[in-house]
Amino acid sequence: MTLTKVLAMVRAFRAEDSATPIVLMGYYNPIYSYGNERFLADAKAAGVDGLIVVDLPPEADDELCLPAMKAGINFIRLATPTTDAKRLPAVLANTSGFVYYVSIAGITGTAAPDTSKVAAAVTRIKASTTLPVAVGFGVKTAEQAAAIGATSDGVVVGSALVEAVRTSLDGEGKATAKTVGAVADLVTALAAGARRARAA
Fold it and tell me: Beta partners for 135?
């Protein structure tokens, strides 16, 4: 995969859907190699709405965050269980779109979030911002999505979708007739869980 291919995928998606927000998440190096100014222009033209660049701290906002926001692309920042009251204002200062709360300390997909701790953290973050707070890391089931969605504005799922793809591949690692259905079924279940929480 390359950044050029990602932007081509965004353009293809936008040809069919102009309403669903698209947020690209990754590391800074591919953007830096592509060229910041060129990337922001191409991303905006393709239809990207936001960026999550996990290795660019607030101290480097001049590098990409502020130019992205000037270009009309949201720059979404991560808050974590270790983001204390002293650090939180810096994290929120130039964040736009939403705040992404990482529900567990560690590697994504390896543990389940503690919903009571997540609820307390979301409440603390919301006391300092009017932005929506979405929660991710470790959400794998509809029940978890419902529990997390009950106290947050959104639920982020990544590793569980990757696992759904992985377990549907053939012996050579290629997609099978089950792949699309496996992902669609999981997304449907997760979305139903999150919506159930919102309706409660």
Answer: 101, 155
Helix (H) or strand (E) holding 52: strand 50-53
Largest CA distance in the chain: 51
Q: Which of 157, 94, 173, 156 is nearest to 122 (CA)?
A: 156
pTM, 2 dp: 0.88
Residue 155 pairs with which residues in a beta bridge? Answer: 135
Rounded Cα gap, residues 62 and 66, in angstroms:
6
Query: CA angle at residue 144 from 139 to 145, to 5 degrees?
Result: 80
As beta bridge partners, residue 25 has: 52
d(CA 99, CA 39): 23
Question: What is the DSSP pairing of strand 99-102 with strand 78-79?
Answer: parallel
Sheet containing 99-102, strands listed edge to edge, beginning at the edge strand earlier in sequence:
78-79, 99-102, 133-136, 154-156
Encoded tokens for 125? 């973050």
- 52-108 confidence digits (pLDDT tens): 999 999 999 999 999 999 999 999 999 999 999 999 999 999 999 999 999 886 655
